[in-house]
């Protein structure tokens, strides 16, 4: 009915050790890194490159769903976007979701 003292003092039949106890947590972190963290970093780099490459004449979509044409690059953090004929708004560059069509670069002689 009760466990004998000699049987209770022997310990576990299989001693895993410190690394064996943390191995499942390490495996979970490695899996999370490759499935979540790494792809998110790649998307952030692509978005930063997209924002850095904006210039006048590009058709863009904002994160709010507005479609417009970049009429002026104000500075490193702001753009002036023409939503329709005569309607211009200033937006923050980071709010650009995608670029629909890129404009041709300006010629140096013109």
What does this structure look like?
This protein has 110 residues and is α+β, with helices and mostly antiparallel strands. It is 36% helix and 27% strand. It is built from two helices and five strands. Strands 4-3-2-1-5 form a five-stranded antiparallel beta sheet. Strand 3 and strand 4 form a beta hairpin. The chain is rod-shaped. The chain crosses the membrane at residues 18-37.
* Topology as a string of helices (H) and strands (E): HHEEEEE
Enumerate the spans where pLDDT stays under 50 for 5 or more consecutive residues: none
How much β-strand is present in the residues? 25-35%
Total of DSSP H or I helical runs spanning 4+ residues: 2
What would the principal axes of the Cα set say about the shape?
Answer: rod-shaped
Largest sheet, described in full? Answer: 5 strands, antiparallel
Number of strands: 5
Strands side by side in the biggest sheet: 4-3-2-1-5
Rg result: 29 Å
Task: Please tell me the overall pLDDT.
Answer: 85
How much helix is in the residues?
25-40%
Category from helices, strands and their pairing: alpha+beta
Distance between the termini: 98 Å
Family: Belongs to the YajC family.
Keywords: Cell membrane, Membrane, Protein transport, Translocation, Transmembrane, Transmembrane helix, Transport
Pfam families: YajC
Transmembrane segments: 18-37
Q: Which key phrases capture this entry?
A:
110 residues; alpha+beta; 36% helix; rod-shaped
SSE layout and pairing:
Elements: H1 5-8, H2 17-52, E1 59-62, E2 67-73, E3 78-84, E4 87-92, E5 96-101
Antiparallel strand pairs: 1-2, 1-5, 2-3, 3-4
């Amino acid at each position: 009915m009760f466990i004998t003292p000699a049987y209770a003092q022997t310990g576990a039949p299989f001693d895993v050790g410190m690394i064996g106890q943390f191995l499942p947590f390490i495996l979970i972190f490695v899996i999370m890194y490759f499935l979540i963290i790494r792809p998110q970093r790649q998307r952030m780099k692509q978005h930063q490159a997209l924002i850095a490459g904006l210039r006048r004449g590009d058709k863009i979509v904002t994160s709010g769903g507005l479609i417009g044409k970049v009429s002026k690059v104000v500075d490193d953090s702001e753009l002036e976007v023409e939503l329709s004929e005569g309607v211009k708004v200033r937006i923050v560059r980071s709010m650009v979701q995608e670029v629909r069509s890129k404009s041709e670069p300006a010629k140096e002689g013109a």
